Amino acid sequence: MKVCLLGDGAVGKTALRERYLGKQFSSGYVMTIGADFAVKRSQIMTEEGVKDVKFQIWDLAGQPRFNSVRELYYKGSHGGLLVFDITRRDSFTNLGNWIDELYKNSGRGPMPITVLGNKVDLQDEVENPVTREEAIKFIEELKKKKSIPYDVIYLETSAKTGINVDESFNILAMTIKKYLTRTK
Hints:
globular, single chain, Rossmann fold, six-stranded mixed β-sheet, alpha/beta
């Protein structure tokens, strides 16, 4: 199952992936150049019971200068974890562009996504964080505008504390499995 982590630079995509892979959180920021790739085997609960899943996790650079390179890494994706930083409104307002880029370049069109509001551990440290209500409203509008035929889940995450990191991958995998079963 090929999944892409996408969103603006410095929203915590790499930190989320590293945490999911069982590594410790690092507060140092190292920009991803183009894309980074990892594999993890996991188990998810489906309607048919426990299923083994092998994730190919593509962590895509969020800086605009990597736009043309990024297009190549979307090919064959089954879904995406769409990440924004709740302390940076600009990363939230750019979500629509990331979805368009994923759908345009994947070769599959609309596909399952899970929206992640990352860095919830910092929400009390900023004056105007993006709220859960704003994110849910964005998802409702997105589903209407794009006629999305699957559930889009919103989770608040923290790579630092581990909140909802495993759940985000598992929920996306369950949504992909359900979507693929319906489209066969």
